[in-house]
Amino acid sequence: MNKKGGPVVSISGADDKKLAAALIAVQSALWVAIEALSKFQEARDQQWFNDLEEVSLNEAKGTVTTGISIESEAESLKFGIDVLKAILHSKRVQLGLAAKP
Q1: Each residue's pLDDT tens digit, 52-98
Q2: Which of 9, 34, 43, 48 has the least CB density, counted as fewest CB within 10 Å?
Q3: Using CA atoms, how far apart are residues 97 and 40, in angstroms rounded to an integer?
Q4: How far apart are alpha carbons 56 and 27 in whole angstroms?
Q5: Cα angle at 55 between 49 and 60, to 5 degrees?
Q6: How far is Cα 90 from Cα 93, in angstroms, rounded to an integer?
Q7: Could you give the C-alpha distances from 15 to 30, 33, 39, 69, in angstroms and in order?
């Protein structure tokens, strides 16, 4: 855990192919987790999803990397956040939830 209480992830030997495979695995896991969570939220309005989206994006934006240039970090982080937004949007649509106001 880091100072903020978030996970610290260190992956050595990562190349483009490994990172792409990891992204697919994480996307699939997130998709399944949100699907399972939605089953517990059926009686509630969509606020649970809005809250999940907000927390997820805030955590992703707070990611800190080491060992790469600030430019590479910014570009990579933007890409990761864009992927997260796309996953959340797709799941929102699949669950039939309205767009966040």
Answers
A1: 999 999 988 887 777 778 888 888 889 889 999 999 999 999 999 88
A2: 43
A3: 15
A4: 13
A5: 125
A6: 5
A7: 22, 27, 36, 17
Two tokens, residue 79: 């890409």
91, 56 Cβ separation under 8 angstroms: no
Task: For the beta carbon of residue 91, count every other beta carbon within 10 angstroms.
Answer: 19
Cβ neighbour number for residue 83 with a 10 Å cutoff:
15
Q: Quote the tokens at residue 74.
A: 């910014």
Decide: residue 34, CB within 10 A, 0-12 exposed, 13-18 middle, 19+ buried: buried
